[in-house]
Every structure is written in structure tokens, then in C-alpha cells.
């Protein structure tokens, strides 16, 4: 469906430009946007490599294990149906850790792996479990200590102070996470009846 919407938007823009005799503007805009996208991508590669390298160093130094150790009681409380020694627990912790470090690109494959592990515990394969819903909610709000991807985007776009959003991002992501966890628990209580 989204492809149809994009097709309609592009076709209507081209048609409008053609009717106004300004089709060259569409061509120039398309070329300019493609050039900007490539430049932004090249700028992001360096920053993302830096953060992924830091994440690897954190993993090898034991920092990720430390974060996992700290998060285990919290994750155990949030996901009571998941056994503590199940691979899903480790996948959930890695997903939330990557989210906290602002590595949005790394969260997606980790989140998919966590969902696959949670599916192994699912008695009804065609219905999401409460643990799956909680994980999806947590990934959607994405509590972030260091918004690395946003900092990288702001830096690549030429921001004078790309890190000035760290404080507001921390507050907003914390409030969103608390809100979604409260709503998650309320929905569980309502549909449990």
C-alpha cells in the first residue's frame, strides 16, 4: 500500500510540473536529491563505523556484560514469562542495550532475533505474546542514553553543535518509555479478564 501512495505522490508531482511547463525542475530536483543522499550516506558511514567500533570495544571489554548484569533484574521484571536462562533473555538485553546506546541500525536485527527467540516460547504461533508486545513497545520508544544516530545525522548535515540534543532526547525517551510500560501493563490487566 505504501508503494502505491509513493507512486501517486511522485506521479502527481511530475504531472503538475509537466502541466506548468516546469518538468526540468523535477529532473534537477531528482539529481540534486540523489547527490545529497549519497553525500549524507558517505558522511554517516564514518560516524556509524566509529560507534559500531565503540560498541565492539564495549563488548570485548566486558561493558556489555556489565550492562546486561545491571539490566537482568529489570528485564526479568518486565518479561516475567521468559525464563532467565533462555536465549530470548540475552537477545532482549542486547536489543535494549543497543537502543540505549542509540544504535538504531543495530537494534533492528537484534530485535528481530529477540522476536524469533520469543516465538519459540509462544504456544499460539499466530498470536503475539505479552512479552512480544512489551519488546515491541520498548523498541518503539527506544530509551536512549546516547543518541548516536541522531548525532551522526546532525553532524553530517553540518550542525554547529550536533550533541546539544542529548539532554532533551534522554528526557523524552525516558518519559516515552515509562508511558509505554504503564500502558502495556494496563492493557495486560484489561485483556487478562
From TrEMBL:
Keyword tags: Membrane, Transmembrane, Transmembrane helix
Signal peptide interval: none
Pfam assignment, any one: Gate
InterPro entries, sorted: Gate_dom
Coiled-coil intervals, chain numbering: none
Membrane spanning stretches: 33-54, 66-82, 88-112, 133-153, 165-183
Chain ranges of the Nucleoside transporter/FeoB GTPase Gate domain: 42-151
Keyword field contains Transmembrane: yes
Protein name: Spore maturation protein A
Species annotation: Sporomusa termitida
Gene (name only): spmA
